[in-house]
Design brief:
This protein has about 200 residues and is mainly beta. About 0% of the residues lie in helices and about 40% in strands. The protein is built from no helices and 16 strands. A five-stranded antiparallel beta sheet has the order 4-5-6-7-8, with no helix packed on it. The radius of gyration is 16 Å and the shape is globular. It starts with a strand and ends in a 12-residue tail after the last strand.
Length: about 200
């Protein structure tokens, strides 16, 4: 899958070199990334619309995840319009990436809210982590050295054992967490400049 931001589309490339547009501007305004989840859906982090969009492998629209202006969490409903950026739980402010975790949940890098958010595979909100204090931590850490802030997360990945690797563009760091949000140490890295 190739995600195009400025000419909004998701393109499928095949091993034989053929390419076709799966999703175009009828649904997209400014997609950041797209990834397959554990159910075979394409999860598109729609940066410009403040939504996570889901599509079938053939490009059929399956719904949107985010927060409506009336503060209702959109659990993969079939609406098509974007929503305003919000700091409320379940909503996003210019998300960059979503992925399916090893246990089948959806994890979202909610970039400008400086947090990761977690949802069930059906779109039910399950909490957020901001500082490595657990999935419902909204308070500042007592010891910031042990609980680093996730400043502008843009990319996330997960090991088969469940550890989360997060690139934090805003702090020029790569952070490592247990699946429960507990921070882990990372060995010496070269100086990073706003990593993706």
């Amino acid at each position: 899958l190739v995600t195009c931001y400025y000419d909004p589309m998701i393109v499928a490339l095949t091993p034989d070199g053929s390419a076709r547009v799966l999703v175009g501007s009828e649904y997209l305004k400014g997609p950041a990334t797209s990834r397959l989840d554990s159910q075979g859906r394409i999860l598109v982090a729609e940066y410009a619309l403040n939504l996570l969009l889901a599509f079938s492998p053939k490009g059929d629209y399956l719904g949107r995840l985010g927060l409506a202006p009336n503060d209702e969490i959109l659990e993969l409903d079939l609406g098509r319009t974007g929503v305003p950026a919000t700091t409320s739980p379940g909503g996003f402010d210019r998300l960059h990436m979503a992925m399916s975790t090893v246990d089948g949940l959806i994890l979202v890098a909610d970039t400008w809210n400086h947090r990761l958010q977690r949802f069930s595979s059906k779109g039910e909100y399950l909490g957020c982590v901001r500082t490595g204090q657990g999935w419902d931590a909204d308070t500042p850490p007592a010891n910031p050295q042990l609980h680093p802030q996730i400043a502008c997360p843009v990319a996330i990945d997960q090991s088969t054992s469940g550890q989360l690797l997060v690139t934090a563009w805003g702090s020029s760091q790569v952070l490592l967490f247990e699946s429960d949000g507990t921070p882990l140490a990372i060995g010496s890295l070269p100086k990073l400049n706003k990593p993706y």
